[in-house]
User: Which sequence fits this backbone?
């Protein structure tokens, strides 16, 4: 069974940092690109970042470019999102999602709240 | 960036009815459109990819159609578990991937 489990969310002050993780199981992690998608409270879905299977290609939404860093460890079947210089508008549930062109499997999400 | 526009924002329907949700792309995305269902407190789940192919385990009452810039998701014989928010997404021209703003299906 394919599983993606996010962790690392929490309350952080504006300007602070947080590192999210996504643990994958049930499939060959190293064969797939993986994405981060976020959802602000009561809002729609926003793509955040994508990393290719071998980390050769990395992309970011303009809203997070220069502040967030995506990375992966294929040996550990894990994905990370380092978030720096956090803003109130980064408050959201963050999902990792497997990329099969469409996003065929999603984790349950982890909530990040940026507030003083 | 390709803008995806969904209509309507909210649809009030009764169980057993058939509904059609619309999604328009700002430019052609061929058939590279997916539809997702999201229930309250849950992650989105894939319903349709390639504009018309049902994902694994999705009932036949869900069907997708369209190509280019106009796409529809039709749900026939609505069941209670179908009341949720539905999002379309294009994956033809990325980055960025873009989602529509969602259509909420509510019980009349």
Assistant:
């Amino acid at each position: 069974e394919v599983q993606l489990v996010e962790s690392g969310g929490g309350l952080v002050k504006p300007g602070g940092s947080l590192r999210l993780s996504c643990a994958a199981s049930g499939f060959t992690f190293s064969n797939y690109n993986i994405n981060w998608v976020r959802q602000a409270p009561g809002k729609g879905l926003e793509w955040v970042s994508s990393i290719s299977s071998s980390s050769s290609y990395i992309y970011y939404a303009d809203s997070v470019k220069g502040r967030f860093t995506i990375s992966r460890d294929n040996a550990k079947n894990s994905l990370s999102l380092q978030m720096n210089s956090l803003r109130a508008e980064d408050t959201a549930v963050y999902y990792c999602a497997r990329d099969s062109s469409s996003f065929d499997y999603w984790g349950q999400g982890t909530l990040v709240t940026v507030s003083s | 960036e390709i803008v995806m526009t969904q209509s309507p924002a909210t649809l009030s329907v009764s169980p057993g009815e058939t509904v059609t949700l619309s999604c328009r792309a700002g430019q052609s995305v061929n058939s590279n459109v997916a539809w997702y269902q999201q229930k309250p407190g849950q992650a989105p789940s894939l319903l349709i990819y390639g504009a018309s192919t049902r994902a694994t385990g999705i009932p036949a009452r869900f069907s997708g159609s369209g190509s280019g810039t106009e796409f529809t998701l039709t749900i026939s014989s609505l069941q209670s578990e179908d009341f949720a928010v539905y999002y379309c997404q294009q994956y033809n021209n990325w980055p960025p991937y873009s989602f529509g703003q969602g259509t909420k299906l509510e019980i009349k």
